[in-house]
From TrEMBL:
It holds the Pfam family CorC_HlyC. Keywords: CBS domain, Cobalt, Magnesium, Repeat, Transport. Residues 73-133, 138-195 form the CBS domain. One of its GO terms (molecular function) is flavin adenine dinucleotide binding. InterPro entries: CBS_dom, CBS_dom_sf, CorC_N, FAD-bd_PCMH-like_sf, FAD-bd_PCMH_sub2, Ion_transp-like_CBS, Transptr-assoc_dom. This is Magnesium and cobalt efflux protein CorC. One of its GO terms (cellular component) is plasma membrane. Plays a role in the transport of magnesium and cobalt ions. Belongs to the UPF0053 family.
Amino acid sequence: MSEDPASSRQSSRNQDKTWINRLMSGFSSEPKSREDLINIIKEAAANQLLDDEAVSMIEGAIDVHERQVREVMVPRSQMVVIGIEETPEQLLPTVIESAHSRFPVIGESADDIKGILLAKDLLPLILNGTEDFTLEKVIRPASIIPESKRLNVLLREFRENRYHMALVIDEYGAIAGLVTIEDVLEKIVGDIEDETDEEDEDGFIRKVSDNEYVIKALLPIDQFNDEFGAKFDDNEFDTIAGILIRAFGHLPSRNEHVEIDGFEFRVLYADSRQIHLIRLTIPES
């Protein structure tokens, strides 16, 4: 005997109400920890009340509440800056090549912040030419924040004060890096790519000293081996992230480090789902 369609629909609605009631009762009972809250959300996803993308965004929003600026900022060594004395002929190649929309303007050093240059403020050069142009006339005030500021607080300040970039200082008052509103939003919604982002099929390797590099965790193992003369096995994993997680025995947090075959890896940036950036120190030999 076939099941009555009306009865089937009623059963389905009752099941949905049951899970909704359980979800709401979970919230009303005030979860005691972040893990309790995440478990309730994941249970809702398992029963198709939320999709995976929604769960990921909720986790990201919760994560932002607990994270500090130092965990997402662009480090000082990777900042693209403009000198206050630079002429349009000197600064325009930097603006064009980097494709950024905002640039810290500095004096004698990166600690001497003069302001922020918006690329759009250079558009009058097209009509008016470069005669009598000085950066001091077009730069905007820079916002300076401590690297310990929580990301949810910073996001609120970005929104309320209507600025999109801040310079980050360490405990000694020196510039440690910069952070943008995009850096914070990416913690919630994932990577945001625009038309200026280049496809990076070969991974990412940036040399910072004679034997130190910053690399993406998704760098393919075979490319790592070719670049640094290593002999890591790629039969089990495809990327350096897999090698590191196996070595750590868990998903590592920022500043955790491990040595493998003479190569030292220090995690620069990782979230609750994956490793993103690593500082690599290669053997001096």
